Structures are given as C-alpha cells and as structure tokens.
C-alpha cells in the first residue's frame, strides 16, 4: 500500500510515540496468547474469540501506524521501519502456527522460541534510526563493514605462504607430499595485479568513511530536496559492497584476467559515483545535475585525493592486466 502523503502537519516525534505504543501492544498480546495456551485447560470459545480479536487488532494497528510514515520523510527510513514491522508480523504468524500445531500439555521449547522471536522483533524498534539521516548512516555502516571484511580476507590470504584454499580443498596429512595443483597458488604476476585491486578496495572503504563523516556533520532532514539527496547517496553506496565482493572473488587463484578487467572497471565506476556527489562535478550519476548538500568546498581536498587514488590504481591494474595479452 501507499503511505499517507498528507504530511503537511506530519510530526515525526508523534509518529514514533504512536508506533512504539503499537509495538508494545503487539508484544503484550503475543505474551498473553502464549501464556494462555501454555497449559490446560483451553480457553472458552468466548475467551478464545476475545484473544483472537485482541491480537488481530494489535497487528492491524501496528501496520496502520507504519503506513502513516510518508515517503517524504525519507525512503531509507521508511524501508527500515517497514522491515522491522514485517519482522514483527512474521513473528506473530510463526507463533500462531506453533500454538495451533502444539499439543496443549506444557510450554514447549518451540513455543518459547517463537514467543522470544516476537519479543526480539519488537525490541529492535528501540534500535531504529529516528530520522532519514540516521537511516542512511546505518546503511553506510553496513557497507563499510562488508568492504572491510573483503579487504581483510584478501590480506589474510596473501599473508599465507601456502595455498589459501588448503584447509578447504585438501586434507594433507603430516609427511605427505604437498599437492602440486598450481591453480590454487598465486603467481608473482598475480600478486602484482592484486596490489592495485586492493588499492581500489581501500579507496572504496575510505570513500564510504569520508561520506559518513560528511553526512554526520552536514546531513539535513528539514527539506524534501535534502532528504532525497540522502536517499540517493544511500542507493549509490549500496552498490559498493556487491562490486567489492565480485572483485575480491576474482582475486582468488586461479586468477582469471578476463572478468577481472570488467569487474575492476565496474568497481572504479561505483567508487567514482560515490565520490562525485561530494565533488559537485559533472558525471553520469543520479546526482549529475545537482550538488549534494552534505559536501561543500571544505571536502574537496579528500575527494580529489581519493579520485587520484582510484585513477592511479585503475591505471596500474590496466597496465598489468594488458601485459602479454
């Protein structure tokens, strides 16, 4: 369904107060339902109908309150509230399925787990960002963590003198001859190619960190234009980690240079798209015709530095990839 867009007098603080009350009501109704069906005797038909009406009312109220949040408050925020709401509704559905299929003897482990699942889903509302700026910062934090993991995995594999896949592909016992499959080893040229690719990956995470700092300092949620810019930055940033994952996978032996050339270009393009809104320079990104409010002249130094790092590593990778091709 579509959100209520009549938000001329929309109050975000009132929305959160109402939403939190609705979440608390669902949690309480789920607990009541679980307790009633934890031991005999069964509730009477009349009491059962009241319980059903009560739990239904609580989930409908929660769903309705979620739809009060207009997209004009920020798409990133609305998506996170939606996901949290869906988790609660799915938790309640799972609890009902367990109650309907469990014998009425005692509180089963499955029932305890399902009830706890509803509580956990409700508790996550306390951790949700309160505005679109916070929602975008959470997205960036997730992206940074994924990219850092990819970088650390490659660094760890490179630091190992032996085959990085030996613990997966091989069960060598002490005293046995080492496996001779060179497809699981990096050549010297492979390692040279990996260097600038690592540089591109590090430039990506540096860009995300700088963008995070800029949004923390300058991110504004008071105008529709600035809210939309924050959402655009979030959408562009979400392209970074898939590109890094693809690049990292191509770096494991045996190195296949053909897809690596394509993925290196894509990774560079994504990193540049993330940088461009801050640089306020022409580009083909979704922000090509307007500058982002989060980055001004004071940020141009690091933007230009990271652009230089991207260009340097991309050219170096190009040169190495085209050797003897």
TrEMBL record:
Matches recorded under Gene3D superfamilies: I/LWEQ domain, Talin, central domain
Region: Disordered, residue numbers: 165-184
Keyword vocabulary terms for this entry: Cell cycle, Cytoplasm, Nucleus
Lineage, broadest ranks: Eukaryota, Metazoa, Chordata, Craniata, Vertebrata
Pfam families hit by this protein: GCIP_C, GCIP_N
Domain spans labelled Cyclin-D1-binding protein 1-like N-terminal: 19-159
Main location class: cytoplasm
Highest taxon above the source species: Eukaryota
Subcellular location: Cytoplasm; Nucleus
Family listed: Belongs to the CCNDBP1 family.
GO cellular component: cytoplasm; nucleus
Protein name listed in UniProt: Cyclin D1 binding protein 1
Alphabetized PANTHER family for the sequence: CYCLIN D1-BINDING PROTEIN 1 (PTHR15492), CYCLIN-D1-BINDING PROTEIN 1 (PTHR15492:SF1)
InterPro entries: GCIP-like, GCIP-like_N, GCIP_C
Segments forming domain Cyclin-D1-binding protein 1-like C-terminal: 172-268
């Amino acid at each position: 369904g579509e959100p209520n867009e009549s938000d001329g007098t929309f109050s975000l603080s009132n929305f959160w107060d109402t939403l939190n009350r609705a979440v608390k009501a669902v949690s309480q109704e789920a607990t009541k339902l679980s307790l009633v069906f934890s031991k005999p005797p069964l509730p009477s038909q009349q009491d059962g109908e009241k319980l059903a009406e009560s739990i239904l009312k609580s989930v409908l109220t929660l769903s309705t309150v979620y739809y009060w949040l207009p997209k004009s408050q920020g798409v990133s925020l609305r998506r996170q509230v939606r996901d949290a709401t869906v988790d609660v509704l799915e938790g309640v559905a799972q609890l009902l399925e367990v109650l309907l299929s469990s014998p009425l003897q005692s509180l089963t482990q499955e029932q305890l787990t399902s009830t706890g699942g509803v509580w956990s889903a409700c508790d996550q509302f306390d951790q949700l960002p309160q505005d679109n700026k916070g929602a975008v910062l959470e997205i960036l934090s997730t992206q940074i963590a994924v990219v850092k993991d990819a970088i650390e995995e490659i660094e760890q594999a490179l630091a190992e003198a032996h085959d990085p896949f030996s613990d997966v592909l091989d069960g060598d016992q002490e005293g046995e001859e080492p496996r001779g499959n060179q497809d699981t080893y990096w050549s010297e040229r492979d390692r040279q190619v990996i260097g600038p690719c690592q540089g591109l990956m590090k430039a990506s995470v540096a860009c995300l960190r700088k963008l995070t700092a800029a949004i923390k300092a300058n991110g504004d949620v008071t105008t529709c234009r600035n809210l939309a810019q924050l959402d655009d930055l979030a959408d562009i940033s979400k392209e970074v980690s898939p590109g890094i994952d693809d690049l990292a996978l191509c770096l494991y032996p045996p190195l296949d240079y053909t897809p690596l050339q394509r993925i290196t270009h894509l990774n560079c393009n994504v990193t540049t798209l993330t940088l461009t809104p801050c640089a306020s320079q022409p580009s083909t990104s979704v922000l090509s015709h307007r500058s982002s409010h989060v980055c001004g002249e004071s940020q141009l130094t690091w933007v230009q530095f990271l652009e230089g790092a991207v260009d340097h590593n991309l050219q170096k990778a190009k040169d190495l990839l085209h050797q003897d091709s």
